[in-house]
Amino acid sequence: MTGSSDNADGPRLLSGGNPQIPKGMGEGPVQDYIAAMPGWKRDVGRRIDDIAGATLPDLRRMVKWNTPFYGVTEGEWIMGFHCLTRYVKVSFFRGARLDPVPPVGSKHPEVRYLHVGEDGVLDQDQFADWLRQAARLPGEKL
């Protein structure tokens, strides 16, 4: 299912408001993705990105499959997020190894999710701690 963007010149929004962004390495494609996120989701994306950047000095970013990914080791990714209708879904690829474990399970035993809804509630300290923990674990090769 596809939708239309808030801006006729901007990226197309896929189901749930997920921006269709060309794949690319670095901060630029991630910032393009965040800028294209609709409404309140854009603020959530900015906060996620800001916290990740402030927490992990060696942060690497990329967009693939219309999803921003974050990591600290070349070719390995620890976290990503994308838009769904009612929340922004944050994926921790080794989330089952984090303490405390992020709240939402997955069909993949190691993956755990955090859902950030329109209220924008995101515990910055806990999120930063999960990022630090995840950065010490092996990343996912995508």
Describe the overall structure.
It comes from Pseudooceanicola pacificus. With 142 residues, the chain is of the alpha+beta class. Helix content is 27%, strand content 20%. The two termini are 24 Å apart.
Class of secondary structure makeup: alpha+beta
Figure out the total of helices.
3
Helix content: 25-40%
Q: Estimate the strand proportion.
A: 15-25%
Mean pLDDT, as a whole number?
93
SSE order, as H and E? EHHEEEEEH
Low-pLDDT segments? 1-7
| Biggest pleated-sheet summary | 6 strands, antiparallel
Strand order of the largest sheet: 1-2-3-4-5-6
Question: What is the total tally of β strands?
Answer: 6
Notable characteristics:
27% helix; alpha+beta; 3 helices; 142 residues; Aspartate Aminotransferase, domain 1
Write the SSE topology:
Elements: E1 24-25, H1 27-36, H2 40-55, E2 60-64, E3 67-71, E4 79-83, E5 87-92, E6 112-117, H3 124-135
Antiparallel strand pairs: 1-2, 2-3, 3-4, 4-5, 5-6
Task: Give a brief outline of the structure.
With 142 residues, the chain is an alpha+beta fold. It has three helices and six strands, in the order E-H-H-E-E-E-E-E-H.
